[in-house]
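W.,

You were right to be curious about this one. When I first looked at the sequence I had no strong expectations either way, so I just let the prediction run and decided to look at it fresh. Below is the sequence, 206 residues in total, followed by the output.
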Amino acid sequence: QGLLLLEDAGDTVLWDAANDDPAAAETCYRRAIDALLILHERGTAHRPATSLAFKQGLDARLLQWELEHFLEWGVERRLGLTLSAAARRGYQESFDAIVRELTAAEPVLSHRDYHSWNILWRDARPVIIDFQDAFLAPAEYDLASLLTDRITPRLVDPAMEARLLDYYWRARGRDAAPARRRYALIALHRALKVVGRLHYIALEKH
């Protein structure tokens, strides 16, 4: 009806809330995972026919494009060199293996940028923003965003990371073992994608 509802969720993001009280950091991230469980389970089950998020996803074409983007901008353009045919084949073999594993995973409704600076913290609860790029992806995509993005590992050490991942998979009643490998691959993929994208923005868009 032409109405837009806006809500002021304050200025504190999850990273600030957790960093200001390290003793409560794991609880903060568990609450962020609780919100993620709602998105992944109830959101995926809802599937409105009009939602663009359910019409696109992290498929083989997009994965390959993002990895190639890393090679072009994060390696060749950044360093001012051209990879040899042998080096490129080596990269491509690794990329193909990553793509095969990730596209075999069951997709869920994914926020796509679910990190500590896109989660506002109000009244000890998460308020999620910046979800306009949501699409279908393996569940580990959002988990990797939450637990490995930017400087998050300064606060979320490997032991806490393992506990939080176990917490997520126990809540979904799934085996965490195969998910751990996908999680590592997606964390790697996201890091390569970011390196390529940021150098593209810097070098091409200035």
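Here's what jumped out at me. The helical segments are 14-20, 25-46, 60-79, 85-103, 139-148, 158-171, 176-204. And, maybe more interesting for your project: Residues 176-204 form the longest helix (29 residues).

Coffee later to discuss?

I.
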